[in-house]
Amino acid sequence: MDIEKLTGKSGEWLRGMGPYGEIVFSSRVRLARNLRERPFPGWAKKEERLEVLRQVREAIDKLPEMAGAYTENMEALTALEKQLLVERHLISREHAAKSAGSAVIISPDQSLGFMINEEDHLRMQAITCGLQLPEVYRTINAADTGLESNLDYAFHPRLGYLTACPTNVGTGMRASAMLHLPALVMGDHISKIINSVNKIGLVVRGLYGEGSEAIGNLFQVSNQTTLGESEEEILQRLEKVILQIIEHERNARQLLILHKAVTLHDQIGRAYGVLSHAHSIASKEALNLLSVIKLGIDLGAFPPSGRLGVDELFIETQPAHLQKGVPSKKMNAEERDTLRATLIRATLSRIPEPEMSKLTPSEPESDQQKHHE
Amino acid sequence: MDIEKLTGKSGEWLRGMGPYGEIVFSSRVRLARNLRERPFPGWAKKEERLEVLRQVREAIDKLPEMAGAYTENMEALTALEKQLLVERHLISREHAAKSAGSAVIISPDQSLGFMINEEDHLRMQAITCGLQLPEVYRTINAADTGLESNLDYAFHPRLGYLTACPTNVGTGMRASAMLHLPALVMGDHISKIINSVNKIGLVVRGLYGEGSEAIGNLFQVSNQTTLGESEEEILQRLEKVILQIIEHERNARQLLILHKAVTLHDQIGRAYGVLSHAHSIASKEALNLLSVIKLGIDLGAFPPSGRLGVDELFIETQPAHLQKGVPSKKMNAEERDTLRATLIRATLSRIPEPEMSKLTPSEPESDQQKHHE
Q1: Under an 8 A CB cutoff, do B341 and A266 touch?
Q2: Residue ranges making up the domain that contains B354
Q3: What ipTM goes with this model?
Q4: Which member of A109, A174, B207, B339 lies 3.0 to 4.6 Å from B218 by CB, making a disulfide possible if both were Cys?
Q5: Which residues of chain B neighbour A338 with C-beta distances below 8 Å?
């Protein structure tokens, strides 16, 4: 399986709407694991890394869910291929910087991924669409259990799983959901929400993880601590907070419709007007406007048939994804901005003009919800 | 004749294209005159102002071209009516602040206007579309000659016409043209042009005269000095410089088409996209985007039939013009922004999508020009 097969289609977590799909893009759980009595990748010699790689890869290959997986050593990947994987959230930016002794393995449906010799010997993640934290945890836990029978994990009876960085010791788990919160941003309530969430030991980040800016009104909410709570407790606490944020976003959307109708119509109209007419557009502006189109679809101004195309643009307009469509030459930023605009215009041409009259306050809960779940 | 008749239709200078009409909005000449041995308005007592007003008005009423004119004492005008006249460039902002003892008289076709007791006893202006400085001068000179037979002007054999402010002494003439220079702005050449023009004793200002910002890529070029040159010399020098600026703007437009096609398509596309979809828009943004639509019409991306509607929006989207359409209530800025967007969407809906393929470099001169002249 080559990288074309991965990038040629949407990841599982982009296809279709999961529960709370109008607000939750995706749910993700990753586990950090290390082999007993082997130096962490940052301290290991090349031969030690290669030996870890061999063992871990062998164990992963035995997992039934990884039949037909995409497997590649990092040194075999071009800079473009690495960036493609980063843009699809399949590897971390840190892992993309790795070379000999590191590898990536991704399941055919892209729902399960493994990074070997990133910061830890093994980082594995499961990802799916919508809010489904227990489900993704079950998936990754099953893979972890399968691996444990063939790998000797570094595990301390009191501390739990040992990791290269102390912040991951314990469960080694980072669970997160990617939330689309345009109404909280428009209504200027987002910093209040971020502050409260930070205070209770959870973290809010932008689209591309640690230190990244919240473009496209996308926010990743994840657990901070990995020690002192079981995986189930962490997931329950996280899910509870996410459900509250969803509630806030839904209220903010209703308030926009009821009390800020002109602003809402204006933002949706302008986003549609610009995206369907621009001939050059930078990534950040594109994501911010696509976010508003997505909100417009959620609220009924555009037909739901437009959703998949718009969601895909969040990934397809990223630099490496644009570059892969033009293998003959290395594009500069200006050329990418032009291609990005062309791609977006093509998708937008299949979405009719916004109908602001359809932006009416929704029934108080449940009906819409049942439909998604 | 009441103000409705003035504001209900386009001024003469907005209707149709004058010479060089794709770049020159309008040409204007104003003369400052005072009556001999009467204190200037700023120093005069109320009775003295009223006496000047009576005399000057009587003289103007005798001019055959002023039959059926709009005549009003400033104290009889509401704040809204005054602002309407300012937005149509029929009176100055300074004159709008005047009350008893001052008056305004405007010819039925709005090409000829008189302010009595502004800074001087009499300020008269002629205005027309396109670049027609000698023609507007002939018009205003004829009116001036007509008045002179009935009014005793303050005139000094060596200095010329005496005025309240020394900067107007001599000819008392300020001639100007309103130029639309979007390509020089896009290409970042405008400040160079403004600097050169300033160096040779001419002045460049924004849309609403002295001290105003150049919104909508509109620049008023006028003579600075009134002393030491005859009217004809001033007009010739001004026209020569304006023709050079026109040449620069035309070259800049061709350069955009040839070398900055993506930027040009992007700006035209976005202007159209935003104006046809915004539900709230401030005056400044509106004028700046309308300027780009105007450029698009000039260059062939839109059919010429859209020109009048777009030109009229430059005036019709100004605050007082919006307010006069809603006599029942005083609108706030937010309500005006909404109404402005609605008005613009309606006009834009009659202009088809831009056709970028029609943006081709034009023949080197003359063909296009002959058409306008």
Answers
A1: yes
A2: 260-358
A3: 0.88
A4: B207
A5: 262
